[in-house]
Fold each of these.
Amino acid sequence: MLDPRLPGDSLALLQDVWREHGDYVQLELQGSDNPAYLLSDPVLIEQTLAQHHDSITRGFAGDRLALMLGQGLLVNDGELWKTQRQLMHPLFHRGSLGWLGATAERSNSALVERLQSSADRGAVLDLNRVMLDFSLGFNLDILFGPDAARLKALVEDDFFEKLTEEPAGTTRENLLFLRDTERLRRHLTELIAERHRRSATDQPDLLDGLIGARDRRSGAPMAAAQIVDELLSLLTAGHVTIASGLSSLWRSLMQQPLTMSRLRAEAATVCGGAPARAAAYTELSFTRRCVQEALRLTPPIWIMTRRTTAPIRLGACEVPAETQLVIAPALVHHHPAHWTDAEAFLPERFTPEATRARNRYAYLPFSAGPRSCLGDQLSLLQNTLHVATVIQTFDLTADGDGFVSEPGFVYRSKAPFSIRLTRHEPS
């Protein structure tokens, strides 16, 4: 029986079910009388996420997520979801990647500067904590621009990580979380009011984009409360997922010295020892494939759920309304029918030729269909520039025990993963 709160053993349970019963399996969900199915066939997944999207809505969400994000895009559905998606999509259009890429460049350069003293000492660092801190700073920068430091001071280091956990702590801990949530929402509301009074700055950010967004039909702006919900949705979706993806990537690369050498050679050729720029993104093709392969091996969003609002047909099966459909990228990304030697780190899986030959729904790090991640291109851009910048400056080696995953709503490890950081000396 699958617990919708997704305790740490949920992935192992689904792996056992999938291996024993195949790509279309009925599940029992704890606390629910409605039917549920695990889908691991890309054809059925495409039918669910794309062909039947008008009869599909989001599935269960964590209590803390629903409480924190209100009517944000990450957790809402129906007509409001459609309206908000249309309003926000232009903010992540390719035309916006210029200033977003410039923010990524600054964040990566600042990270390298912060890590210099640690490298000079040959310090041992927790990779997970470094990536979480880096990702939080980057996401605050793209959302709040000149006000990023002010927002950073409002939250504890693990505040947004707690959003992907269920409220299993003491009553006091949960009440403190509620207090912090309300305080953050209040400050965001005040910041929105300030932005309305303040003249535009030279540093663009998504908050200004949300304030300036207008409904296509009515021309109406978003209400302040809705902007708060969307800011928190974007921050929640971007922070822990980018950190998880980068931690997984570096863990894989530290086991691949030849791949590391090839990455460093590409970065040196394209960037010439300077921090990677957004304009170089298309030239960093091998780096980008490594990013994509890491997202295949350990997708941050390792599970997603959808609920049918009307009867649909999946393959040869009739699926009634109010059915929960469980899709686990962590299973699909390791499916032997679609991925040869699925446990190996092989960036060549993402050459244009290999990508065209594969069912696109066999690769789901950003979901797919109408509810796919708005920030997918930004995430690939940031992670690619990050690797090309860091690898020119530092050598990273694992220092201690291996990674032990704890998949909850995000695939990550709460336990420290120690690395030793030293300056890279070109040969």
Amino acid sequence: MTKLKVWLRRMAMVSLLLAIGIGIALFFVLRSNWLREEVRARIVTEAEKATGGKVSIGRFHFDPNALRFEVHDFVLRGKEPANEDPMVAISHIVVGVTVESLAARRAYLRSLKVENPRIRIITYPDGTTNIPGPKIRREGKSVFERFIDLAIREVIVEHGTFAYDHRKWPLELRARDLLVQFAWQREGPRYVGKVAARPFHFNWPKIAPLDFDVDVDLAMEKEGLRFDRVVATRGKSEIQASGRMYDYRSPRFAMDVSGNFAMAEWVKETKLPLSPEGTASAKAVFTYANSIYDLKGTVNGRRLAVRQGAWTVAPIDADTQFHLVPDLVTFTSLNARALGGTYRGSGEIRNWNRYHVNGTLNDASLEQLWNVEKGHREMAWSAAVTGPVEVQGTFTGAADTNVKAAVSLTPAGGKLPMEGLVRVEYDRGRNA
């Protein structure tokens, strides 16, 4: 028994020394130039296999303590000539990795930061682009070959640009829990994939920063993009869309869009004098061609509120057909219920500032009309107001409001009834 104890003690010592030796060796290997070059070469190989392009990397650094990779001067060349700018050029990429289990070889990307990316897509006369196809093996029966399967906890893209032929846009976004899955389908040939993020933060010129949870199922074909399913959620609001983009050289979109909106989550983006009350739903067709967008459909709102200066109209239920083009939105078949009555007519908003509404008011409460500007003040008379009413002005200043009306008053229940005809021309700017 004594010999067994001695043997076990010696084996334990040997195991401990071996573990220490392996640890020391691993320590130096992780910091060695050999490992950095091996990882660098693997990144280039896998990136070229996945994209089909030619990849080059400038400086590469790996911090084993933080499990962080840094890549400088990443370049991906597609089908463009060698004397032209590359399809993708990124000055700095930082990747953070978290290892959940060494034994099970489970790890995930906890962060990806991309600085100064320049993406350049070109369409050639034959309709093809400089986007290459992946370098994948042709043998095997599967028509799908997965070449991108990526999950990242946090993504940041800063100070980037996206160029499509001769058009260029700034590119900045943030996303959490980003999922990107793409496969190559030989029979198309096409890329088929899914992109999801929760949330997805996006900046775009002339639009306030937007935050959504996004799920997109799409396919990239020779003729264009096919969006099988697009879902964007934001709190209690949701937008759904599907459709296609045709012709990479001169993009044309045709999308069916529907959505439900909680106004509290959209007041800031609309830049209209709406209060964060009520809900709206819409169903429309979106098209884009020759740099001009067009959105046409129907929208209805429930328990909305409009406030501008001392003016308040609430609650409002409304249904209308609308047509949105650059700097103009028109409303037809407008049917609104407010102020105790109904209003039927049409309207327009130009440059998201100047509005014009023209229609007929039916059986509105005189007292509620009185309180639109004056607030909650008692009125001695009561009447139902009916007749044509035209209102125009700007959202930036209530002083620009102009009202024209020729209405009849008929007795209503309660208080002192009024009856007669009233013609009104009111210019708030002149207070007359």
